[in-house]
Amino acid sequence: RPGLSSRCTSPQQSRLAFVNCIGTGEIVGIDIRKPAVVGRFKLEGGPDAVPVQFSVTEAGFPVWAANQGMGSAGLALSATKISDIPIGFKPVGLAAEESGKRAFLVGPDSDRLARAEADGGMKSFNLIAPGGGNKGVACTRDGNLVAAVHPLKQCASVLRGQELRLRHLEG
């Protein structure tokens, strides 16, 4: 199918796989035991959504997506309860804590990290390197340690604690 991404994740002890379809703005659930498509949902923005990265909890939902096309964090609490949380930039990197209550997003043209909350809240934090270049992001299971990598600057922003205070590493 055109627009199918190479990104795939498999929660639920490898019973289901989820695949993002960039051309349609969908995330598709596949039962890998059959194999068969068992569900699909569209992010807000439909084909303009561009879900470049996503994260799925062990239970399957919530699903977080970096909705690059809409400049938001896409959140699916179920296949029918889908929302967007505007973050103010077009994200390319996403990491979510294990419970799925919070996701962290970064983008190439922003010097901010966004923390999106499942209850619809959003807060942003300064990073040490300005925009210009893709960034990667990772977090611990509880979300109290977040690292955003700045390859063009050969450094990383490290945010720690409940309020995510900025630290940095030189590379």
Written overview of the protein:
This protein has 171 residues and is an all-beta fold. Helix content is 0%, strand content 51%. The chain is built from no helices and 16 strands. The protein has strands at 4-9, 16-21, 26-31, 36-42, 51-56, 63-67, 72-76, 82-86, 93-96, 102-106, 112-117, 122-126, 136-139, 145-150, 155-160, 165-170. The protein has a four-stranded antiparallel beta sheet, with no helix packed on it. A four-stranded antiparallel beta sheet has the order 5-6-7-8, with no helix packed on it. It has a four-stranded antiparallel beta sheet with strand order 9-10-11-12, with no helix packed on it. A hairpin with a 6-residue loop joins strand 5 and strand 6 (63-67).
- Note the overall shape: globular
Instruction: Quote the beta fraction.
Output: over 45%
**Gyration radius, in Å:** 16 Å
N→C terminal distance: 41 Å
**DSSP helix fraction:** under 10%
What oligomeric arrangement do these chains adopt?
Answer: single chain
Number of strands: 16
Q: How confident is the prediction overall: mean pLDDT?
A: 84
Main sheet strand line-up: 1-2-3-4
Uncertain segments are: 1-7
- How would you sum up the major sheet? 4 strands, antiparallel
Briefly note the structural class of the backbone.
Answer: mainly beta
Elements, N to C (H/E): EEEEEEEEEEEEEEEE
Number of helices: 0
